[in-house]
Design goal:
Length: 337
């Protein structure tokens, strides 16, 4: 018994005596592993095609769509960390951006349209959260059903018609959210700001701590005085905000709203979260890793096509990296904190 106690004390003492750099690397091992994977992937793509991947043009082209994944992946990290999942965000992005497009088409301010889109995203996120939390439904099934329901609602409203908004070209909102600063798309800066806010909230605000506690052990979180139901609903609202922002940004990039807006987000965003280092069992997550995961996913299609393969290989690699990342997370740390 004494030997076991001595071993435990020595182990704790060894951990406390680690250097700050070692502690930082240990605490951020999931995000660092994702960064390493990203670097290795780019190197593997560069070796057979250096003339493509050693030019800045390919990276700036990826930055056009990369921010859209980042805007949804960040709040989805909160949802997965809380022990839930949200599959309704593609249709939420479509319906929110429809509210934006309809406002602009009516001759009103696009800034008003942006505000309306964010409100629609929040309301839809609230409904999803209430459905899961107070309806006591599986978040996987409930949000998947909502995705189909909202997409059907979009098609019923517009009857398959798109909304062109050429008058937005050169407008301040378009220049800020989908313009250019030199060769870099401005939406990249918006997405970086969004990631920074998410990182600060997740790591330094009590809401982020509440999310991690709820995902780790809801019963203990309740005993600690955390409102578990409110926290779980809030993460769905956060996803609604991110989806609305991504939908509006996508519309501003093309200055056209399509009934299919958001449909292509599902698999890449899920892959971004899991590849980025957020395991599927809750209680643990990494916002920075989610953003890096989005970069990995965005470069996969570019790398596949640049190396002479067709786009049909893209989904295969999406699935492959999700499975490999889950296996890696399973052996990288304990299942529960």
């Amino acid at each position: 018994m004494a030997a076991n106690v001595g071993t435990t004390v020595d182990t704790r003492r060894g951990r406390s005596e680690r250097s700050p750099l070692v502690k930082w690397m240990y605490n951020n091992r999931r995000a660092l592993s994702s960064t390493g994977f990203f670097i290795i992937m780019v190197m593997l793509f560069t070796i057979p095609n250096p003339e493509v991947f050693l030019q800045s043009r390919i990276y700036t082209s990826v930055m056009v769509s990369l921010p859209l994944l980042m805007m949804i992946a960040v709040p989805l990290v909160f949802v997965v960390t809380s022990g839930e999942i949200d599959l309704a965000f593609p249709a939420v992005a479509g319906l929110s951006s429809l509210a934006f497009a309809a406002t602009v088409q009516a001759g009103l301010s696009p800034w008003l349209g942006l505000g309306l889109a964010l409100i629609v995203g929040m309301l839809l996120g609230t409904f999803n959260g209430l459905l899961v939390v107070y309806g006591n439904l599986s978040s996987l099934v409930a949000t998947l059903g909502m995705n189909f329901l909202l997409r059907g609602l979009i098609n019923m409203i517009v009857q398959g018609k798109s909304i062109a908004m050429p008058e937005l070209r050169g407008e301040p909102i378009q220049l800020i959210m989908a313009g250019r600063l030199g060769d870099i798309p401005t939406q990249m800066f918006v997405a970086i700001g969004f990631v920074l806010i998410g990182w600060l909230v997740f790591n330094f605000h009590r809401f982020g701590s509440h999310v991690q506690c709820v995902g780790d052990n809801p019963e203990s979180a309740t005993e600690m005085g955390i409102n578990v139901r409110r926290t779980r609903v809030s993460v769905f609202i956060y996803v609604g905000i991110g989806a609305a922002l991504a939908g509006v940004t996508s519309t501003l990039i093309n200055t056209v709203w399509w009934p299919s807006t958001g449909e292509g987000f599902l698999l890449p965003v899920l892959a971004s979260v899991f590849v980025g280092g957020t395991p599927s069992w809750g209680g643990v997550g990494t916002v920075v890793g989610g953003a890096i995961g989005a970069a990995i996913v965005s470069f996969i299609e570019t790398g596949v096509i640049a190396n002479g393969l067709t786009g049909y290989f893209t989904q295969f690699f999406y699935g492959l990296i999700i499975i490999l990342s889950l296996i890696g997370h399973r052996f990288a740390g304990k299942r529960h904190r």
